[in-house]
Amino acid sequence: MPVLSPAQQWILRAGLAFWFVTLGFFWVWWLKPEHIEHIGPFTFATLVLAWLTLMPMYFLLNVHASRKPSKLYSVPKRSRVAMVVTKAPSEPFAVVARTLEAMLAQDYPHDTWLADEDPSEDTIAWCNAHGVLISTRRGREDYHRKTWPRRTRCKEGNLAFFYDHYGYERYDFVAQMDADHVPTPTYLREILYPFADPRVGYVSAPSICDNNAAESWSARGRLFPEGMFHGPLQSGHTGGGAPLCIGSHYAVRTRALKQAGGLGPELAEDHSTSMLINAAGWRGVHAMDAIAHGDGPQTFADLVTQEFQWSRSLMTILLEYSPTYFPKLSPRLRFQFLFCQLWYPLFAVFALLMYAMPMYALFTGRNFANVMYADFLFYYLPNAGALVGLVMMLKAFGLSRPMTAKTISWEGTLFLFFARWPWVLAGTVSSLRDYLTKSFVDFRVTPKGSGPKSLIPLRAFFPYVVLAIGAALPVLLVDHPFDATGFYWFAALNAFLYGLLVLVIVVRHVIENSIPLRANVTKLALQASLAMLALVVPAMGFYDRGMEGVYGLQQGAGGLRIVRVAYVVSGAGQGNIGTRNFYFDPGWETRR
What we know:
This protein has one domain (about 1-430): Spore Coat Polysaccharide Biosynthesis Protein SpsA, Chain A. It is globular and about 90 Å long. It has helices at about 5-30, 40-65, 95-105, 120-130, 155-170, 185-190, 215-225, 225-240, 255-260, 270-280, 300-320, 320-325, 330-365, 375-395, 410-420, 420-435, 460-475, 485-510, 520-555; strands at about 80-85, 110-115, 135, 175, 180-185, 200-205, 250-255, 285, 290-295, 560-565, 580-590. The longest helix is centred in the middle third of the chain and has 34 residues, at about 330-365. The protein contains 19 helices and eleven strands. Helix 2 (about 40-65) crosses helix 8, helix 13 packs across helix 16 (about 420-435) and helix 13 (about 330-365) crosses helix 18.
């Protein structure tokens, strides 16, 4: 059934129509032949703008098709149902106990299982006292293989033992949870509704990692931007596409999972499992009201480790496994899974291009197009504003998961546009290297429970120091960028934002984790020095070229004046003839 009411659908269609109008408004203007000064730079900029303006179309068209399961029907009462939570040795039992207690409190009858890699005596005693069943692959070398299937140190191998020995034989439906994801009392009932359709092989649900959002800016940085993915986009895939299982929790029809060959390969087993089940002829549904709350990354280091591992894993799936399963998918599903597996590398490559654009313009002295900046804003901003408005509207309709996710936030901005892409790029390159050299890299389990007691590792933020200085260097080194003067401002601003990111990473880690300063004086001094360097170098660029950059940008803005220029004529100590001095002098000039 449709997610939106008839009135909401009408409002959404009107909003989509306006967005398409603004899209055409921009592109008809941008592609005018007189805007092409140099074909290479113009093509470069056009590709980047196509990514920025056309990529949201995938999201918007899927949202328009959003559907949710009917709650009029559910699985037969005689169905055998289980919930299973996984536990790695590094995950404290106190974290898992909260999840188990919430599973036991579900309002739908089921068996509760703990899939523990190495259960302790205390864990066994607790489970026996609470009626929780235990599955463990401890001592089973055949479930500790170095490669998929039944891979060691991987959730897939842990759950494979459960399904092979208990799940397939005893149960019709199984909901599986990560250790930290605590389901609400109606979770199981909500996630079982879609299985009333015998064609449904799996059900995805929103991954809401907000338990520690108040204490971790890194958790908020991912939580807020992903609100639209876990709500309307996944629901849009229900309408003819394939919702993607998210590893933190989802449910399967055991017959479908067995027919597909079990859980999929790689760290991103959730994605590969979705692909395998669809390739086996089953379909998926997104249950957006099956709510469980988990922990987000405790630190920025955890956040970027996850980004590196996920991007690496998805690229590995594309290179090694998708060629086997793509021929079994419909053309639409083939496109969807290909797009999803390519999204990380595309995102990283275009982010790298956008980082390099001001540097390229300053070093070559060429603009990307024969247009004024004021004109560009006039034609581009309506489309960007319409997209933000549509997202805000969908949030107002109650479709975001979580509903409290902010449309615009400083955490989401820093994560999405600045912090994420270097690690995604590194993960993608690592996967390509492993594929070509046939090398092998182990995974790192994200820490759960108590936070760190030491400063953030240097490797987690040093790349941004390099990016900040790298973006500022053209501003300091290039004296005469010819027509690209306005890019002084963009390059300096870009550098400053990466420097600000370094400061946020270092300071927030100390504050959020109550790191003792006395015990870390030397390392803290080094980190503070690097943060200052990442800010001072861009500040020097602003001081040296900022006014000149603004002067370049204000050209073509009619009578609007922000910066005034004065030319040095001659005289001792006045500089070379023709030297320009720039002054902040806002006002309005009338043409004579």
